Amino acid sequence: MADSASIPSTPLLKDELDIVIPTIRNLDFLEMWRPYFQPYHLIIVQDGDPSKTIKVPEGFDYELYNRNDINRILGPKASCISFKDSACRCFGYMISKKKYIYTIDDDCFVAKDPSGKEINALEQHIKNLLCPSTPFFFNTLYDPFREGADFVRGYPFSLREGVPTAVSHGLWLNIPDYDAPTQLVKPRERNTRYVDAVLTVPKGTLFPMCGMNLGFNRELIGPAMYFGLMGDGQPIGRYDDMWAGWCTKVICDHLGLGVKTGLPYIWHSKASNPFVNLKKEYKGIFWQEELIPFFQSVVLPKDCTTVQKCYIELSKQVKEKLGKIDPYFDKLADAMVTWIEAWDEHNPSGAAAEKPNGTAK
Amino acid sequence: MADSASIPSTPLLKDELDIVIPTIRNLDFLEMWRPYFQPYHLIIVQDGDPSKTIKVPEGFDYELYNRNDINRILGPKASCISFKDSACRCFGYMISKKKYIYTIDDDCFVAKDPSGKEINALEQHIKNLLCPSTPFFFNTLYDPFREGADFVRGYPFSLREGVPTAVSHGLWLNIPDYDAPTQLVKPRERNTRYVDAVLTVPKGTLFPMCGMNLGFNRELIGPAMYFGLMGDGQPIGRYDDMWAGWCTKVICDHLGLGVKTGLPYIWHSKASNPFVNLKKEYKGIFWQEELIPFFQSVVLPKDCTTVQKCYIELSKQVKEKLGKIDPYFDKLADAMVTWIEAWDEHNPSGAAAEKPNGTAK
Fold first, then answer.
1. Above 60 in pLDDT, residue B11?
2. Which of 120-139 (B) contact A at CB < 8 A?
């Protein structure tokens, strides 16, 4: 039973946020989230066999898309949406009509803080997204906008206004988000450390963005949240969220937007199979050694003033500089373009991207 | 009474670390630190009236320097050591013969963690300094070298070795380290949030380094830990540690060294007078608006391979680019050179700085 104190009587941004869930199974996990998610609209992206029926607990307001729906809605452009990989979730980001997205995996449950109180993860993400980020200078007391905190001595006053927050990256108690080699080496490691902090990932610094527990402002950064080509027919998996995170961070840095990480925690219930993961990851593990220097050195021209323009430019640089690593990156660069074309078709008022502070739709 | 569990039976680095304390009063505060500090050697830098006698509780092993001592030891070069300001502490860094320094203010007491256990701040600093930093890529589970943590999925393997840690910046419970304007606006704000994290300040990101609770590796970064010209006869105060922090961070980034911040906390007992602070700070508050962009854009040439060379080069750039803000920066640039000259005189085997991983003394 949820602690009623942690459920706001009027859910924040109730009509401005969609919850996107990729899944291959019945969504019983939603029962535990009912007090927190029920006021919101869900977009369920069914992966795998479209003839299977996914059961959603009663009382939730949702729309569900399976592969047939994706193919019908996007036509030939459906090729940019991964199949048999949770990367398919980004289809939900594209067809949402809301300003904010929260996405969560179906093996993630409500965590408790050290006092034993249930954590309303969604509420914390919304708080993170609604207050500014501080990417230009590090604040040693973490997020200066949290209650009981502020900017410390020596923090330049001109930087205290901050910048709009585009991304809120939440963490995981219990099963940490480790790669296959680390899973294999430390099969019993559990994350039990509750770090009571939210902080801005500084400008110019890349981070590994995990898609398990993630919020973002669709109007500010949506078109960059493409989870790439993974799974069926592709040479890698488990790099979908990483790819999206690297692209997103580079574009946020260019456009002066902020990325926060830290709270909230969810309870990650089950480690995926490290042997299966190793097979999905092994190419990514050596490719990323070239991808990181690439993203660290990306420069976007000044005339890239929208997320779409930045993303198209990035796709060109991917083709030019990563294509030589493997033909996969040529294909990925093309898919990046297809993704933006599909995004613009389904979000015709591109004006939203040009006016990040407006409410245009 | 300290919890005996938090006092290691063999104190870490007992013969390799000095504790530097700047003070103008009797050091009764050491009583509370006795279980943690007594095994170590103290360097006490007495500020203000040298004829005053500072009482040190019995049983501590210490050397004490007042202004007369500093003048006698450094001769004309004593001009680079501030008077009537806790910036004088850096004299202690210079004359130490140890590899590591821990410095603490005399209004800082032993804090407790959320379980009520006393925090052995020094032990945590030593742990921070003895394990690597990760400045090139952000790890979302914070310090990957802490027990129960690791690098998360998507963290490049080639970066997991990390780099040597030069600085460990600790935090403060109770009175936060706010500037005068924030103190005036929020006189009752107390820091009660215990954030159980240590993290590396990413490469290219500046941070406000506070000198209240600070550890560093003297061999790796000592000559950059100059606390500038503050206090008596100078136009500003309370920017001593900030100055040292900006210089240190830029040099650490250049030399491939790491800076950690977070744990350990100390209990900061008393807020200084905000009106007095405002008087000391007000020039710094607007100067820092130009200092930060300056430090953000500093480039050190490749042939600056030691901290001393970096620091001399930085002093030139300070003179050239900041001298026009105020003649104070000309004077400061000269003092930076004097500081290095004095450092080298008192640390004749400069070889230590050339071989950061060696044990040369």
1. yes
2. 137-139
